[in-house]
Amino acid sequence: MKSPTLLVLALLSATVAFAGPPAPKKEGIEGKDYKWNAQEGEKIEALQKKGDPKAGKEGYEICGACHLPSGAGRTDGTFPQLAGQHSTVLIKQMADIRAGLRDNPTMYPFAKELTDAQELANVASYINSLCIPIDHGQYEGADAAKQIAMGKDLYEKQCKECHGATGEGNKEKFYPVIAGQHYKYLLRQMTEIRDGKRRNANPDMVKIIKPYTNDQLVAISAYQSSLSMPGSMCKAKAGGKKK
């Protein structure tokens, strides 16, 4: 396995190689005419196509530099775990980044290399074929039990209706699986949604978490990351620990 330093250098080199025009800018939640998850454009084309996981494996190679070949992402929250996520959510987020509706200057140069809607469907299909990694980033503070308990209370009151009793999300409604996602990634995304920086956010969610304090976001992220992501888990390596 490459060392973290070599991986970073490889990523930087790839970013330079794919450098080009900046991402387009499409009006998001900051605009008065914004409609969340509008059923139009490349996203709808991709959703209507049958994904080919074998072809998607080749397309995913460019994604694996950051999200890892396993789709596990990185526990420091820089890149989310993709394995186990709904295909509808994967396609929506890739399409939003390509269209300039979700700002992600790190991912955009790579996402734009996917040729068309069919390749988006293929990559999503391949990611869906991956087993779910056993380990992921969780809250590690000494007060973890307290934070998780407080987060569970908040989650069951205001998040369960959309994201499900166990964080399983809803494929048909484009609500992501949040169970088992990296704690630091969850915290960063919810903070950005609350603060209006995630421009493709669902306005209904913004209304719910707008009043949340930083401490409450820590607690709810700690709880969500403590849950097990639904689906086919990877087998533990011999001598390794099981979750």
Indicate the structural class: mainly alpha
- Beta-strand percent range: under 5%
Helix content: 40-55%
What gyration radius follows from the Cα positions, in whole Å?
18 Å
Low-confidence stretches: 1-10, 12-18
Classify the fold: give the CATH topology of the largest domain: Cytochrome Bc1 Complex, Chain D, domain 2
CATH arch. level architecture of the largest domain = Orthogonal Bundle
Main sheet specs: none
Regarding quaternary structure, what we see is single chain
CATH homologous superfamily annotation of the largest domain:
Cytochrome c-like domain
User: Separation of termini?
Assistant: 23 Å
* Level-1 CATH class name of the largest domain: Mainly Alpha
The domain count comes to 2
Number of helices: 11
How many extended strands?
0
Mean pLDDT: 91
**Shape by Cα distribution:** globular
Protein name: Cytochrome c553
Organism: Sulfurisoma sediminicola
Keywords: Electron transport, Heme, Iron, Metal-binding, Signal, Transport
Pfam families: Cytochrom_C (PF00034)
Give an overview of the whole structure.
The chain is mainly alpha-helical. The protein folds into 2 domains: 99 residues, Cytochrome c-like domain (Cytochrome Bc1 Complex, Chain D, domain 2, Orthogonal Bundle); 83 residues, Cytochrome Bc1 Complex, Chain D, domain 2. It has 11 helices and no strands. The longest helix has 15 residues. The relative contact order is 0.16. It holds the Pfam family Cytochrom_C. One of its GO terms (molecular function) is electron transfer activity. This is Cytochrome c553.
